[in-house]
């Protein structure tokens, strides 16, 4: 019997091996695709570490276990940033825009408990009740032999016969859906509904298709009806027989009946290209968001839950970054706010962490004669950014406030910061006084 401790040691060994192999090959393509390593980490390494979270999630309350998770994360982060290994893991995480692994584990475990185990949870004082969220249908309730989707194609409206256009819209955190019916380009019927504010535009698109199916089923005669939607994601969900979203299943059942009894065919059209019916429907969907009352109240989508959970995790990461007293403080003065979009590496990472080919840093580890720059001042990273005469011409091109180092990493400054980093590295033989 494999214990969780043995399982996790195996995961750590696997991640260390993969990270080492990536490090051996990264030099061949890193300069051309520096963000590729981050994609590999997020898509492959992180899920591999977090595999089995359902069994080990309760251990996330243990400080030692959380610290060990971040130790596992260190080697991949070092490969991604290509920074000095003396830098802190906290700095690596902020430089690369990768949250601490313990927070990602909490996020993954919370998602499992609410959406799969159907348990109420509390995450950082925020309560979540599982029955408020969409619960997927069991895939075993329908025999595989009768599982089929509702196909669609791409076809331009021709203005012939009966054409129905559906749409969903979200404005100012309000969601609406609408459906308009044209007969030889003449508007003969329209419906609009407002969904709950916790709904998504995707759900609104599906509700619009449901309105179309319900309307078609009121006909007393059978004829061909073309239904147009500009939401490819909604149409693809209906075409996928393995999709177990309850709203998708409900709309699919309505459309199957409408297709068999009234000859309904689904078509995808491009949005905002001038189709009369689509523009009418788009206006109705937007108008539906202004309705004073909610007509359709759906369970909160899992994407809303995950988005809320992610924002909680980012805030916890920010708090940890703000109140960690001894690690990454120089980096914190330059990058005070954490973000998933941040990405600094190489020489730039050395400058932003203060760990690099600087006299002060080298002297601290017993390398070099003293900690002074050739100009006589202490040769740390801040010195070369703010005051060193050897970098004066590059510093003149920076748009920043010397009293606020966070202004150094503005978008307009990044090319110059990269040049500054390379300049300091090139000056190494001349930095220390003879």
TrEMBL record:
Gene3D superfamilies: Ribonuclease H-like superfamily/Ribonuclease H (3.30.420.10). InterPro entries: RNaseH-like_sf (IPR012337), RNaseH_domain (IPR002156), RNaseH_sf (IPR036397). One of its GO terms (molecular function) is RNA-DNA hybrid ribonuclease activity. SUPFAM superfamilies: Ribonuclease H-like. Residues 158-290 form the RNase H type-1 domain. It comes from the Eukaryota. It holds the Pfam family RNase_H. This is RNase H type-1 domain-containing protein. It comes from Araneus ventricosus (Orbweaver spider).
